[in-house]
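Render this sequence as a predicted structure.
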Amino acid sequence: MKRYLAALAGALCLLPVLLMLEFPAGKSPAADSAAFPYQAQDRIDINSAGAAELGLLPGIGPKRAAAIVAYRTQNGPFQTAEELDEVEGISPRMVQELAPYVTVG
């Protein structure tokens, strides 16, 4: 029984290390760009995309997608992708992470 508990305790000590190897720098699978179903050349036009399509962007779910559409409706089309940081819930860091996936057309 003692050997079993010692092995279990050792395995539990390694768990954080294994998780860090799997998801470095605090990234989760949901934020991984591999979850984005488009290729780099298939950028989403943030001026014409609906909430459903915007919600496919990494880090953007239904709530932020709706906020983008609402901002666009109130303020007109985006002139640059950087303007996304004016949308509630979207930080400048998120704008940088979204840059490869969005365009303004």
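Summary. Helices lie at 2-22, 51-54, 62-75, 92-98. Strands lie at 44-45, 102-103.
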